[in-house]
Amino acid sequence: MEAELIVRMLEKMEIIDVNQTIEEFESTTKDAERVQRETLKKILEENGSAEYLQNLGLNGSTDPESFKACVPLVTHKDLEPYIQRIADGDTSPILTGKAITTISLSSGTTQGKPKLVPFNDELMETTMQIYRTSFAFRNREFPVGNGKALQFIYSSKQFKTKGGLNAGTATTNVYRNSQFKEGMKGMQSQCCSPDEVIFGPDFHQSLYCHLLCGLIFREEIQLVFSTFAHSLVHAFRTFELVWEELCADIREGELSSRITVPSIRTAMSKILKPDPESADLIHKKCSGLSNWYGLIPELFPNAKYIYGIMTGSMEPYLKKLRHYARDVPLMSADYGSSEGWIGANVNPTLPPELATFAVLPNIGYFEFIPLRENVEDQVLGIEPKPVGLTEVKVGEEYEIVVTNVAGLYRYRLGDVVKIMGFHNSTPEMKFICRRNLMLTINIDKNTEKDLQLSVEEAAKVLAEEKQEVVDFTSHVDLSTDPGHYVIFWEISSEVHLHEEALQECCNCLDRSFLDAGYIGSRKVNAIGPLELRVLHKGTFQKILDHYLGLGAAVSQFKTPRCVSLANNTVLQILCNNVAKNYFSTAFR
């Protein structure tokens, strides 16, 4: 009876009022400083009994000044012992007043192993608030009808920690939460695939069925989504390989034998019926495409936009995604992390490369560490003091510090952002890079963005040979004297390119790092010649499979852009799959 009641409630649930949601956002951002003080007060009042805060001597104070005086800036490493106790079953108020019952796992692609992060209903509510806000602004510009969404979303298994808490990737915890499904219905963004596909135990089978469901409901698809641009490109690269099999399934109304999970087969049998007419049409459309250009609008003629996180380490996939999308707009999803959300994309018409995110001042308390140190601080080796949400300056770069509703206090996120402007009194920011993801040997400092720009420049040489970079990563090799940068490339074809072309790519990579410290060090041979290692096809798939084996979800996967010695397994996969290597001659 209770289940029936929930279903009825969901059916009656009102579609989100776009204008009201926008008005609420406008009101909240008008006086962001006041909202920030109120948000911090609420967080500290609700969690005042937590051991962590008690030990720091806040004594019930809830104002920002006392908070900053008593509570230190921390990294995940500082909080690890507390989170571990929670995961091991200690139900006393450790980081929060109310006991934490769920743990999120970060993707693990940055550090090589997943971090444990507290997750609770309050954090889920901030997630849905971000989703509602960005949907409202998106829907105002690109209204979606009452159709379906082709969502390449995957849930890895939840498991129990030693203390009996539910644990899973952050995306899994969101997708399995009842608020998510309710919210998606309110946003007219229901997934065209059944739950059995989303929660299936085998990613490859789930992906195949997502594609099949998309084709079955192709006329109804209003938008295409995945958490990351990488997953979207991966999905349509897979489509190129299996499209004829998908057509055969639709023609016969019979699911491919590659799908072996009984629950998925049962769910798919309810929606897959023989439809030779559709199969012929899809076959004709695919056969008529030139190198799969415009695949998405051909398959899904009513798709209004393609949506997912497309900034930062996802930017390299945009060229391929645009190839598939043709004139369907790409829209970058909101800005957050496993630790929680920060900002919503309220300017959906901007291309992903220019996407900015407006901070919601009522979902957490935010501080910003300036990256531009003054001369005095540099001499003394003092890090600049963090500034408040409304004190940031346009054009400056900062590292974000988060205090959230799930037990993180003055937590250094490790993300570098640039302030691009203000929406009312809340900043709009652009994601720049992860602060700790740097290629550095001595005085050189090259970020993930610098690496991306270098790869883009060198890929132009490859494009002249009708080839493209499928994916890339890097490593600082200090086993040589002097140390040198190693760039790993997987390229689109097994066909051997001219040696001269790849050698020129290697030289171009080396020349395209414009950091003065790098150029100076290369000229005097304090850093050795850059090395390009071309990988066998499928190497990055092996890396993805490695992370899936650790329990990561594809929806959360990000190719690590800089692989350290600590990330030994991934480094081994890369080194064991080198087809050819080249050393730069650029600075001879």
From TrEMBL:
One of its GO terms (molecular function) is acid-amino acid ligase activity. The keyword Ligase applies. This is Jasmonic acid-amido synthetase JAR1-like. One of its GO terms (cellular component) is cytoplasm. It comes from Acer yangbiense. InterPro entries: GH3, GH3_C, GH3_M. Coiled coil: none annotated. Keywords: Ligase. It comes from the Eukaryota. Belongs to the IAA-amido conjugating enzyme family. Residues 449-564 form the GH3 C-terminal domain. Residues 358-434 form the GH3 middle domain.
